[in-house]
Amino acid sequence: xxxxxxKKTLPLxxxxxxxxxxxxxxxxxxxxxxxxxxxxxxxxxxxxxLVLVNDLTYTPVIITDVKAQDRKQLDVxxxxxxxxxxxxxxxxxxxxxxxxxxxxxxxxxxxxNRSVISAVNQYVKLxxxxxxxxxxxxxxxxxxxxxxxxxxxxxxxxGKSALKQAFKAHIKLRPVVPLEHQxxxxxxxxxxxxxxxxxxxxxxxxxxxxxxxxxxxxxxxNNQKLLESFRHYxxxxxxxxxxxxxxxxxxxxxxxxxxxxxxxxxxxxxDMRDPYDFLDDFLVRKALWVGSKEVRQFGxxxxxxYTFLFAAREITKHERDFAKxxxxxxxxxxxxxxxxxxxxxWD
Length: 347
Prior knowledge:
InterPro entries: DUF6933. Residues 3-156 form the DUF6933 domain. The chain has 347 residues and is α/β, with parallel strands linked by helices. It contains 12 helices and 8 strands. Mean pLDDT is 89; it is low at 343-347.
């Protein structure tokens, strides 16, 4: 099993076995995301509360009052927390033991999956509104409440329902193919843009701030370089005409320069739920010129864009698939909204 703590959380895991290679750990997590977890902690009444989120299902595990002397046995506490949470959801002790046996020795990597990190941050936000019983090591009522939180509309998939589905299909370990050996694409994307991590702090804070216009202009300049590379990718890899490629680029420019910078600083890799939210709400509500044809075109453009981001190694395969699944749902939701808007107009 792989634990991927945030940077501030790493010291809690300094007594456990570190991954020998970050790339190997990410390869293992990509092959078997049910056996990979991201982690952070929050302070409650000066006590550390560890928050673990499963990479595949977003199932949360909460461990309260983690002290310095707990570090040597943190792997034991994590196994106990997972067993309790899985038992509460699955009621399947045989397969749970099979999972824990497959998980074997715990190793520590570092947080890297932006989609899961986003889920971790969302859980932390939800916890800020909850009472946390520090006398209960694994607060089951709280974990139950978080497990019912919907992460992907319109299916409203929760950590609880996703875990039940995952145990039917993903409990068996799959062979690990090193990321450097995975076939990405014959066309090699040349990065001409700055790393998006340069603006992570602004994205994390959210909302408008003093000097926003200056930072937004920096992001837009960087987006232009990204979009130009995307254009080359469509023409040289997807064999599109310049006109068709330009139409896709124009759609993505609206997404990255208008929607993502509408209120705050966000980049294409800030949150893999952004394309769904853009289609489901912003596009139909703000772009009055958009009809069903344009919605479908935006969906196609976004799918190609996130495929490009994967080819450019800006996102993982899991993130790409998550984004594209959200795009499909977003197109459906947007078309339904348009239909209702038309019905309301004629009524």
